[in-house]
Amino acid sequence: MLSYAIIFLIIALIAGAFGFFGVAGTAATIAKVLFVIFLILFVISLIRGRSV
Questions:
Q1: Which residues cross the membrane (predicted)?
Q2: Tens place of pLDDT for every residue, the chain, 52 residues?
Q3: 16: CB partners within 8 A, 6+ apart
Q4: Distance between CA atoms of 10 and 26, rounded to whole angstroms?
């Protein structure tokens, strides 16, 4: 999940550098959503791992 977020972040940076701002914005939004999902799943796994 985190690797997909990093890939979309790199796509957004490259697209922004070349002037494709629509693609860059979309890729950045996808990267943010994936990163938030990763953080939520990470926190859940930490909580469940400590309680067992």
A1: 5-24, 30-47
A2: 788 888 988 999 999 899 898 999 999 999 999 999 999 999 999 999 876 5
A3: 24
A4: 12
With a CB cutoff of 8 Å and minimum separation 6, the contacts of 4 are 34
The amino acid occupying position 17 is A
Which of 15, 48, 8 is CA-nearest to residue 32? 8
